[in-house]
Amino acid sequence: MISGHTEQYRVMEEPARRPLIVVGMGGHGRVLMDIARVSKTYRLAAVLDDRFSGVELRGGLPYGPIATLKHFLADEPGMHVVIGIGDNRTRRAIVEMLSLPESSYAVLVHPAAVVAEDARIGLGAVVMPGAVIGPGAVVGAHAIINSGAVVEHDALVGPFAHVSPNATMAGAASAEEGAHIGSGAVLIPRIRVGSWSVLGAGGVAVRDIPGGKTAVGVPARVVQPRLSVEKAL
């Protein structure tokens, strides 16, 4: 240090994390709770699920029924919400029931995910650890990009869709609204899975899958009669 000179250091403070409510405490909800705990953007403020009849504290965190959500939003300005329900139709039904302003919803991205700078992620969407979202990709509102999933460049994931663990959507592939891409499934480039369709686990889509259908196998073929989501996955 130079004689007579006093070194001064500025302590960099991390920005305050925004409060977050997770709606749903099943398996998917618990994963979102864990992401919130390691997030640099949000802090877990409450968990709501209709398995609770009233508000109770667990480890200092409030738990209560979904009906109490608006009370939490009123009590703490800047509160954000994410729906911790894995089933696409149920997640959409809850969003419709809550009727919140779009700006109330968080975009929850695990710090171990890789998201291209120009990728777009809709409000309410969640991105799990190890997921990769490539340049130009678009992820719709309330969609799920699960652990280890790959959404390549220019691919499209519609609102309320779910790309399951280790599934791969190649460049410019699309999964439209409410589509479910099963674990380990693959969409080759520019292939489309229609709205509310299912590509079963391990399936490889080499041709478009129409809306409202279930396809399984390698190459994936539409199953008639239609399988339930549970059997297909």
From TrEMBL:
<dbReference type="InterPro" id="IPR020019">
    <property type="entry name" value="AcTrfase_PglD-like"/>
</dbReference>
<dbReference type="InterPro" id="IPR050179">
    <property type="entry name" value="Trans_hexapeptide_repeat"/>
</dbReference>
<dbReference type="InterPro" id="IPR041561">
    <property type="entry name" value="PglD_N"/>
</dbReference>
<dbReference type="Pfam" id="PF17836">
    <property type="entry name" value="PglD_N"/>
</dbReference>
<protein>
    <submittedName>
        <fullName>Acetyltransferase EpsM</fullName>
    </submittedName>
</protein>
<feature type="domain" description="PglD N-terminal">
    <location>
        <begin position="20"/>
        <end position="98"/>
    </location>
</feature>
<dbReference type="InterPro" id="IPR011004">
    <property type="entry name" value="Trimer_LpxA-like_sf"/>
</dbReference>
